[in-house]
Design goal:
The chain is an alpha+beta fold and 181 residues long. It is built from 4 helices and 13 strands. Helices cover 19% and strands 36% of the residues. The longest helix has 11 residues. The radius of gyration is 17 Å and the shape is globular.
Length: 181
C-alpha cells in the first residue's frame, strides 16, 4: 500500500512507528491530507471460514510506515496532529530533535525489494540486521541489477540485505551477480 511508489524524485523519507492505531486508518488520513507514504506489504495465505485457502495483501509490520519529506518538517508534523501520541518519527541516534532521513535512492531500492510479487525474501528486525556480517555490494547482473546492499549468508543461501529504520529486507540473490563496492 502506498500513495506513491516512486522515491527517486530526490525527497528523503522518514520512518514512522505507530502506537495503538492501524496503518490502514492512518493511510486513509494521509491520502486525504496529501502526504505521500509507503507501507511494506506482503501476500499472506490464510484459510477462510469455508476452509478455502485465500491470499491477502497485509502490512509486513503492522505498526510501521514511511512518509516522504516532500513538505517542510513542520507541515508534516502539524498534519499528523490529530494522531498526536499515536506515532513516533525515528530520530538520529543520540539526538532528541533531529529526524532520521532515509535518502531517496535508498528508499527507492527498499521499495523495489519490498515488492510483494518478488519471492524468496525475508523481513527481519533492524537489530537482527545489524548483527549480520556482509560486504557492501552492487548487483551487476539479473533482475536486481543496480540494487545495492550487503551480501549476507543464511542457511547456505545468499541474500541482498537492505536496512531502513524499523526493519530490513533480505532478498535472495546469486553471489556471482554481485560485486563489492
Amino acid at each position: 500500500m502506498a500513495s506513491t511508489t516512486t522515491a527517486n524524485d530526490g525527497y528523503p523519507w522518514y520512518g514512522v512507528q505507530l502506537f495503538g492505531i492501524k496503518s490502514s486508518m492512518i493511510a486513509e488520513y494521509l491520502d486525504r491530507v496529501g502526504i505521500s507514504y509507503f507501507i511494506p506489504m506482503q501476500n499472506v495465505v490464510y484459510v477462510d471460514q469455508d476452509g478455502k485457502r485465500r491470499h491477502k495483501l497485509r502490512p509486513v509490520v503492522s505498526n510501521l510506515l514511511f512518509i516522504k519529506k516532500d513538505k517542510d518538517d513542520k507541515v508534516i508534523i502539524e498534519s499528523m496532529e490529530p494522531y498526536h501520541g499515536s506515532f513516533y518519527i525515528f530520530r538520529k541516534k543520540n539526538s532528541t530533535r533531529d529526524l532520521y532521513e532515509i535518502a531517496a535512492e535508498e528508499m527507492q531500492e527498499f521499495i523495489i525489494m519490498c515488492n510483494p510479487e518478488l519471492t524468496e525474501k525475508k523481513y527481519i528486525d533492524e537489530n537482527e540486521a545489524k548483527l549480520k556480517p556482509g560486504a557492501k555490494v552492487l548487483v551487476h547482473h539479473g533482475p536486481l541489477k543496480g540494487l545495492t546492499g550487503r551480501l549476507v549468508r543464511q542457511s547456505g543461501k545468499y541474500y541482498l540485505l537492505k536496512e531502513v529504520p524499523g526493519m530490513a529486507v533480505m532478498l535472495k540473490v546469486t553471489k556471482w551477480c554481485c560485486k563489492e563496492c
